[in-house]
Automatic annotation (TrEMBL):
It comes from the Eukaryota. Pfam families: DAO (PF01266). SUPFAM superfamilies: FAD/NAD(P)-binding domain. This is FAD dependent oxidoreductase domain-containing protein. InterPro entries: FAD-dep_OxRdtase, FAD/NAD-bd_sf, G3P_Oxidase/Oxidoreductase. It comes from Haptolina brevifila. Residues 79-256 form the FAD dependent oxidoreductase domain.
Length: 341
């Protein structure tokens, strides 16, 4: 499976687009917007987002481990609580921020994108290899086609690279035909098998034994961190409350919604440095009493950091155990379903 570093010009709406990736690195001399490369001198007009977080958020420190604002209703409950602030949770929260619902998103780790999202390959697949009839097969192509517009909104560096599934010899080429047929069944468009000089032009560094490849011009790549952060940040900008370092201990059904029991943790060295004073939950690094260069920030983890599967379920390398955390308070979070009018 190859992502060509010299993808041919892709087609969008029937118009040849000369800005397709030619191997440029996002953030070095330019940026990708909606799948296509924009040079640095074009970024002020095409990449910078007017009215974004950098303009609307006051230059003051956030409360530690939570957003400045609360989305709670008058009685302290929420319409929706999203558990987990990876790319899926953050995307759900962002969509909900388009509504009038009061939404809280909680994350067990010390930041968004610390679990499975961080370990993601960053490939936006076209959907030709998914089992026909599966949920993935039904949604992959549709989701793929939404990414350029999503990046036009959020600017997380989506690159429309295209992809090649490469075969060596006639026997492996049979698999390409199977994938081509499966892609057609899944509704994936623009697939074709390429050979010879055209294939070498797309990817000059292929093994000499390569004889053919299935080309999907619609596959792309992104940086999981930037994608996840953009979703969560945009959700917060539009009213979603976010709390990190919250481990869900239990969920109970109530007569009008749910009650979530959560443990709020903080790194032990930080808690000890604060001595649990009245401002123990303080501010993020850079806030009151936490100024100073990054290299003087307290060392939270000493020695080798080992991450288990159980850690990945509750925050990965940013989990309470991995960060030597301790529980500082217990929280009860309620959702309440308002009666229909």
């Amino acid at each position: 499976y190859v992502l060509p570093h010299r993808a041919p010009c892709s087609r969008m709406g029937g118009v040849s687009m000369s800005g397709a990736t030619q191997g440029e690195v996002h953030g070095e001399g330019g940026a990708y917007v909606g799948g296509y490369w924009k040079k640095l001198d074009e970024c002020e007009e095409n990449f910078n987002i007017q009215g974004g977080s950098n303009e609307n958020v006051p230059p003051t420190a956030c409360p530690r481990s939570t957003t400045r604002h609360s989305a709670a209703k008058a009685d302290g409950s929420y319409d929706v609580v999203v558990i987990g602030a990876g790319c899926i949770g953050a995307a759900v929260a962002r969509e909900l921020s388009k509504t009038t619902a009061s939404v809280l998103m909680i994350e067990a780790a010390d930041d968004v994108c610390q679990g499975a999202t961080k370990g993601n390959s960053g490939i936006v697949h076209a959907g030709f290899d998914d089992k026909p009839g599966s949920t993935r097969a039904k949604l992959c192509w549709k989701g793929n086609q939404m990414f350029p517009a999503l990046d036009e909104d959020l600017h997380f560096g989506y690159q429309l690279t295209g992809s090649l599934v490469v075969a060596r010899g006639a026997e492996e080429e049979k698999h390409l035909e199977e994938l081509l047929e499966r892609g057609a069944t899944n509704g994936v468009e623009n697939l074709r098998i390429v050979r010879g000089a055209e294939l070498r032009k797309m990817e000059p560094n292929l093994d000499e034994a390569a004889t053919a490849a299935l080309h999907s011009p619609d596959a792309g790549t992104l940086i999981p961190y930037e994608y996840n952060i953009a979703l969560a940040e945009n959700a917060a900008d539009n009213g979603v409350e976010v709390r990190i370092r919250r481990i869900v201990d239990a969920i109970e059904k109530t007569t009008d919604g749910f009650e979530i029991s959560a443990s709020h943790w903080e790194p032990k060295p930080w808690v000890e440095s604060k001595a649990m004073a009245s401002d123990a939950l303080g501010n993020y690094y850079g806030g009151v009493g936490e100024g100073g260069p990054w290299d003087k920030f307290p060392v939270l983890v000493k020695g080798k950091q080992e991450i288990s599967i159980d850690d990945m379920k509750v925050g990965g390398s940013g989990s309470m155990r991995a960060m030597d955390g301790v529980v500082v308070e217990k929280e009860k979070i309620r959702t309440r379903l308002d009666p229909e009018p």
